[in-house]
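Input record (one chain):
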Amino acid sequence: MQTNKGRQGGCVCLLADRSKRCCFLAYHSWKTKLVVRSSMAAETLAFGEDFDEAPTACHNLFVLLGRHIPIFMVTNSLR
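The corresponding structure, as predicted from the sequence alone:
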């Protein structure tokens, strides 16, 4: 029996202002569909999946707030 050696991916989405106040918007976690050999590869895979959702989030915030909200994405890739 072979075990899945895939990695766990996840995303936390926060809305913040210049005074460093923030509001939690969304969180999700999933097992990656691909088997990767490093933490860096897993982080890159998760980053790519979340990057696909960023334009939708930006558009929804524009519709709700009536102005463009920039999106900043970061990863915590550890070696």
